Design the sequence.
């Protein structure tokens, strides 16, 4: 029995007659794309004003394997201005045994729709859930082609970190959660009643499968919810080896938007609507709505379609890289075949007392997404390790190499807690926080050259709290050494006393009362964060931000800070202790142009002692200079 052909021979693509060329020229002139599409005079499209209820048509998509299949549809009507001014939608009913069984499938968005043999648009919206009739919305092809015209104007911007560095200082998790609201487009009452819907009947974008390969279910459950508001359905899939025909796309094929690739892989998948020259139109709706961007584009290989009463979805493997996604707009995702954009290389090592595993992968470079992707990957590396278990202490080391700047050093320790959340989430959150502060800085775009992370797991809870502190002397001379003793209570262990030698400054004023602050790292880091999350222009630039990040104290050290009752000026990333009144007055008059804070105390010295455990708490002691 011969194997089935990959492509459907009935797929209409070109019209070569002079009459067709005339229609095409008028259509492309309407959307200002005639000059930019070299093959415009060969593509036959159906303008929206020619779409009428009752029209019969077909659409093309892949349900399994690599075969593009055809299914029938009928136009119910046109919904004017449904998505906004001059953003109409064609409402259709899908017909045929497969689509009546699966309904509208996640990953089907972008499937080209032909009416009377002419390209009318792309499947993009679906009607409700648990519906008995497979109803769908079609984005008109004219609205999709407009994106290319807009993209080729001089005002178009790239979406890499260089162009998105002006995002707010909120973390990507917060930004996505605050801006992501599932799009819903209410149907007119007469249409809703006609298709059996109530007053709240609406169309929503067809879900886009977000395919995770090499990820543990715990990582998916923890992070995938953050992207759900964008209409992404988290699924587990795989990767397939690059093939010579990966870049040979036809309408109905699948393409992937690549977020992570390598030992770990995350990609979203849509159906191709139109291929013209080296341009690829897909989805018929936005992926994340980021506008202009630079995202790797891959070939999508469908394994099968999972049918569900709630939400059917395609299971897709990620193929080879074939180009770049350049536009992510309301009506389409636009890509260009050819070279893929650079990605950020990452080396992740997970070490246990028995074994060490190393992962190599690359991340898409994007101000909003990259910090979240690093966090997901780090957390996944932990929980997918066979030696992982709750009640584990983690030691994080590594760094971020930034072109033209000092290295950002990552070093910290994290103890488990009794909170109802995975212990590994604290490592992931810290990594995400650092990346957010780098990417969202208002000074310059940070070009990340390389990321190296190593997480060592210690199978016990290593944490100690500060119970009390005291000094062996209540009075001391300037320049005299003093031992500060700290009572530490380890988790379920006997208390221990840690001695920290300090020195009274030689210039300390006689009769002054100094405060000795014994603390954990977080107590001292709070002041540093005043700089990094301060209003724009607080620091001199990215290098000073990196300096502050590297200066932050570590969780596994006990800190002793000597404070004197004289004001301290914080100017940019510098601390100016014992500031005279004249200097305070001068800088106070310039607060609008600089970043100045005034503290009641000045730091006269800081000492720390490394501990093989996480320190928490604080205590104060006073000493008089005699």
Sequence:
């Amino acid at each position: 029995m011969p194997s089935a052909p990959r492509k459907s021979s009935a797929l209409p693509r070109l019209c070569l007659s002079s009459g067709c060329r005339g229609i095409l020229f008028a259509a492309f002139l309407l959307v200002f794309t005639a000059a930019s599409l070299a093959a415009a005079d060969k593509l036959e499209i159906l303008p929206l004003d020619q779409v009428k209820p009752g029209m019969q048509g077909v659409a093309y998509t892949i349900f399994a394997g690599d075969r593009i299949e055809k299914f029938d549809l009928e136009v119910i009507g046109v919904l004017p201005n449904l998505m906004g001014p001059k953003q109409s939608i064609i409402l259709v009913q899908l017909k045929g045994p497969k689509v009546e069984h699966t309904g509208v499938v996640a990953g089907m968005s972008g499937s080209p729709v032909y009416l009377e043999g002419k390209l009318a648009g792309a499947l993009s919206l679906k009607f409700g859930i648990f519906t008995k009739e497979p109803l769908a919305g079609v984005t008109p092809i004219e609205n999709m082609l407009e994106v290319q015209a807009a993209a080729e104007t001089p005002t178009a911007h790239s979406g890499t970190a260089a162009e998105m560095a002006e995002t707010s200082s909120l973390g990507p998790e917060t930004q996505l959660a605050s801006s992501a609201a599932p799009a819903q487009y209410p149907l007119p009452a007469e249409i809703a009643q006609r298709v059996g819907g109530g007053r709240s009947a609406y169309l929503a974008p067809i879900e886009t499968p977000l395919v995770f390969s090499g990820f543990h279910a715990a990582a998916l459950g923890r992070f995938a919810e953050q992207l759900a508001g964008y209409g992404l359905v988290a699924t587990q899939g795989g990767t397939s080896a690059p093939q010579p025909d990966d870049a040979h796309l036809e309408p109905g094929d699948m393409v992937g938007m690549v977020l992570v690739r390598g030992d770990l892989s995350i990609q979203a998948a849509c159906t191709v609507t139109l291929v013209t020259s080296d341009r690829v139109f897909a989805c018929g709706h936005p992926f994340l709505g980021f506008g202009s961007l630079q995202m790797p584009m891959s070939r999508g290989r469908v394994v099968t379609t999972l049918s569900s009463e709630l939400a059917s979805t395609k299971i897709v493997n990620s193929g080879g890289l074939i180009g770049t996604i350049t536009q992510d707009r309301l009506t389409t995702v636009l890509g260009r075949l050819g070279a893929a954009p650079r990605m950020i290389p990452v080396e992740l090592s997970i070490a246990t007392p028995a074994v060490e595993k190393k992962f190599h992968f690359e991340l898409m470079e994007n101000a909003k997404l990259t910090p979240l992707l690093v966090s997901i990957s780090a957390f996944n590396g932990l929980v997918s390790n066979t030696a992982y278990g709750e009640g584990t202490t983690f030691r994080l080391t590594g760094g971020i190499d930034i072109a033209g700047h000092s290295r950002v050093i990552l070093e910290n320790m994290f103890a488990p807690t009794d909170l109802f959340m995975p212990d590994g989430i604290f490592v992931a959150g810290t990594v995400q926080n650092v990346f957010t502060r780098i990417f969202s800085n208002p000074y310059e775009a940070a070009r990340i050259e390389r990321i190296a992370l190593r997480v060592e797991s210690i199978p016990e809870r290593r944490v100690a709290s500060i119970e009390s502190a005291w000094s062996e002397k209540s009075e001391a001379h300037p320049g005299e050494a003093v031992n500060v003793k700290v009572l530490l209570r380890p988790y379920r262990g006997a208390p221990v006393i840690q001695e920290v030698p300090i020195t009274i400054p030689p210039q300390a004023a006689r009769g002054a009362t100094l405060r000795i602050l014994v603390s954990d790292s977080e107590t001292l880091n709070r002041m540093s964060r005043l700089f990094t999350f301060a209003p724009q222009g607080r620091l001199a630039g990215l290098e000073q931000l990196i300096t502050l990040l590297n200066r932050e104290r570590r969780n596994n050290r006990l800190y002793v800070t000597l404070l004197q009752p004289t004001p301290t000026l914080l100017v940019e990333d510098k601390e100016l202790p014992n500031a005279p009144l004249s200097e305070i007055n001068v800088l106070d008059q310039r607060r609008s142009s600089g970043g100045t804070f005034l503290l009641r105390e000045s730091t006269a010295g800081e000492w720390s002692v490394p501990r093989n455990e996480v320190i928490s708490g604080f205590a104060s002691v006073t000493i008089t200079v005699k």
Notes: Residues 463-625 form one domain. The first helix runs from residue 18 to 30.
